[in-house]
Amino acid sequence: MFKPFYRLLIELTNGRWSSILLKKFARSPRSKRVVNRFAKAYRLNTEEMETELSGFPTLHDLFIRKLKPGARQVDPGESSVVSPVDAVIEDVGYITPLSEMEVKGKIYSIVDMLGDKETAKKYMDGVYMIFYLSPSHYHRIHSPINGKVERQWTLGKKSYPVNKWGLKYGADTLSKNYRMISEVRTDSGMVAIVKVGAMFVNSIETTHTGTDLKKGEEIAYFSFGSTIVLLFEKGCFSPDPAISIPHPIKMGERIGVFR
């Protein structure tokens, strides 16, 4: 009973005009009035921000805040893979031979997520990891690996919630939401970085130029809470066995190693 009600509610509130209004407000000077209340409500760590709270002209600027140098340490291990974001790891698992993954009891198609069968084939029997960013998290995205971007593309239009309720009850959020996909070649194998848009706000802004990625380097940012999905080619990556689900993590912390 809850699932159809949840989907109907989201459909009614996730329209073009509601998205425009939310985005317009967050970027307007009027939103400065809620910056302090937002920071307090979500218990933001103001000590690590590069800019003082009073210096954010809009709510959007607070969403995409930068941190002070040294606020995050990137694991230096030569074979380590690090978290691309501050987030909660919601799931870790293996992609089936049918190019599917099970998240919160729901089956997602890697073919639908990536947009074509040939691309999805590379990740059959490989590992997936899902990172959820709430509105309280630091929204900038960093490269989890050293490598070279071979292809980047976008898919989807609307964006539905990607929190635990969205993953469980939503209509294929990870494979239907607006998303930007970067496929990266590493010395150990292929990795897909799937940046998934959140409810209402589809904005995923790229900040990196060129094709060479360095572990820990900023590559993009979300304009609101959202999700990152990492897909690893079969046999190239082992997740850290210390990770339990759900698992809070900071950008730069080790999530596993290349084999």
TrEMBL record:
Pathway: Lipid metabolism; Phospholipid metabolism; phosphatidylethanolamine biosynthesis. Its cofactor is pyruvate. Pfam families: PS_Dcarbxylase. One of its GO terms (biological process) is phosphatidylethanolamine biosynthetic process. InterPro entries: PS_Dcarbxylase (IPR003817), PSD-B (IPR033177). Keywords: Decarboxylase, Lipid biosynthesis, Lipid metabolism, Lyase, Phospholipid biosynthesis, Phospholipid metabolism, Pyruvate, Zymogen. GO terms for molecular function: phosphatidylserine decarboxylase activity. This is phosphatidylserine decarboxylase. It comes from Neobacillus notoginsengisoli.
